Amino acid sequence: MKRWRIDALARRNLVAAALAFVAAAVWLDSACAGSAAVAGSFSREGLQRVGDYIRNEIATGSIPGAILLIQQHGKPVYSENFGVRDVTTRLPMSADTIFRLYSMSKPITSVAAMMLVEDGKLKLDDPVSKYIPAFAETKVGVEKRGGDGRLTLVREPLSRPITIEDLLRHTSGLTYGFNGGNLMRKFYTEADLFNSDLTNAEFAERIAALPLAEQPGTSWDYGHSTDVLGRVIEVASGKTLFQFEKERLLDPLGMSETTFYVSDEAKRPRIAEPMPNDRMLSPTTEIRNPMQPRKTESGGAGMVGTIGDYARFAQMLLDGGKFEGKTLLSPRVFELMTTDHVGPGSGVNRDYFYFPGDGFGFGLGLAVRTDPGLAKPPPPGSLGELKWDGASGCYFVIDRKQDMFFVLLEQTPTQRQRIQRTVKQLIYEAMEN
Q1: Which of 241, 263, 278, 403 is most exposed, with minimal Cβ within 10 Å?
Q2: What is the CA radius of gyration of the chain?
Q3: Are the beta carbons of 153 and 211 closer than 8 angstroms?
Q4: Sign of CA dihedral 249, 255, 261, 264
Q5: Within 13 Å of residue 303, how many CA atoms lie on the same side as its CB?
Q6: Quick one: pLDDT band at residue 185, thresholds 50, 70, 90?
């Protein structure tokens, strides 16, 4: 029998999150779209407006194409391929189109890690240095002004070790370089982690030598935590990240097209491309070529896949860790993963770059809806909603209260947030309670 235990910190987080859920539930049940006790159905006219919106984005040149799947009660209620895969080839969008998933890789890696937690091969309160010894020497970078008025970056000892839970909930202090002062960002820019092709072991060694942006456990900071988690999975399992994920998660779900790069030249025409002027993720980083073989298996941003594959993953999450009679995550582990771990009582700060957004906490690899938020009217959705997206434009939402999920696949670094927000609004407006 599998052995597993919840560490004390995670237990405290569960209690705090449960109180927050109770406080918010009454408001959400009466005020949030799609939060009725009985799942709503969709109107044909409302779904037509969703499709019309996406077609207009294509017609005005924002995106070449997209795929949208809405599935409820285990069956598609809306599935459409829009536009083309690539404006150069003009090949039509189709169900077998391959998309760069970028950060929609993170939930997959996080589920794989939680399988090892359930196996007893990882504990949430394990220090990362147990698996990657270089992290025993990691320090926090603090900008201090000297007597001459010049800023220097001082490396200070950790107040406590980085844990596996920190990697899962993005409280490790590892960053993408968005946070911290100019000196911190300079360190990460010079390390060029996005453009380097390193093995996961080499990547972990390089980033362990960089200063952390914050003390572990103090702030939600979006960054390379899940990439390091991928290396932890390798050490704990004795397999490459892809080997472990394929054996334990991808194959059982039938996700045969999900991988870290496309190795078959015959599949090149199936790859979705952004508009020619929409290829930069940042001023220095271009959207990557998925046909290029890489040593890196980036658990945080490296996977590619199709709509059918990600729909299977989403359905498994919608069904609480089960898929077609197979249990991939036990109810206890699934609950732990999908409970807010950065809310009140957790001691975690949120800053300007808190990407889960208004009304959302963060579990172990996914954003979790905890309250209506501050916006008036509040964003649509239900208490307990799960979601995440990626820098290339891909996006998914899982609404267990409505027994519904949707997956939007597109390739647009610059237009994604605007389009994702509007598509979600239109989908919930199409729901009839």
Answers
A1: 263
A2: 21
A3: yes
A4: positive
A5: 30
A6: confident
Asked if residues 296 and 198 have their Cβ atoms less than 8 Å apart, the reply is: yes
HEC profile of 305-321:
ECHHHHHHHHHHHHCCC
* 8-12 long-range contacts, CB within 8 A, separation 24+: 8/125, 9/124, 9/125, 9/163, 9/165, 10/124, 10/125, 10/165, 10/336, 10/341, 12/345, 12/346
- Torsion of Cα atoms, 74 then 424 then 226 then 113, to 10°: -20
The helices-and-strands tally (H runs, E runs) of the chain is 12, 17
User: Could you tell me the CA-to-CA distances from 182 to 158, 216, 278, 281, 353 in Å, in that order?
Assistant: 21, 20, 27, 20, 16
Amino acid sitting at position 220: W
Give the DSSP letter string of 210-262.
SPBSS-TTSB---STHHHHHHHHHHHHHTS-HHHHHIIIIIHHHT-TT-BSS-
At residue 425, the 3 state secondary structure works out as helix
Question: What percent of the chain clears pLDDT 90, i.e. is strictly above it?
Answer: 78
DSSP one-letter code for 152: E
Given a contact cutoff of 8 angstroms between Cβ atoms, the answer to whether 385 and 368 are in contact is: yes
Beta pairing partners, 305? 99
How far apart CA 42 and CA 78 sit, in angstroms, is: 9
pLDDT of residue 34: 33
How far is the C-alpha of 289 from the C-alpha of 272, rounded, in Å? 11
Residue 322, token pair as written in the block: 């089960």
Alpha carbons 66 and 393: distance in angstroms, whole number: 10
CB 387 within 8 A of CB 397: yes
Let me know: does 428 contact 34? Beta carbons within 8 Å: yes
Give 181's pLDDT tier (boundaries 50, 70, 90): low
Give the per-residue pLDDT at 180.
56
DSSP secondary structure of 13-58: HHHHHHHHHHHHHHHHHHHSTT--SSPPEE-HHHHHHHHHHHHHHH
Nearest of 384, 397, 356, 380 to residue 24 by alpha carbon: 384
Q: What is the mean pLDDT of residues 84-94?
A: 98
In this prediction, residues 37-58 reach a mean pLDDT of: 90
* Residue 286: both structure tokens together: 């271009």
Angle at 281 between CA 275 and CA 286, to 5 degrees: 75
- Specify the residue for token string 């169900």: 95
- Which of 320, 346, 314, 316 lies closest to 335 in space, CA to CA? 320
Predicted pLDDT of residue 113: 98
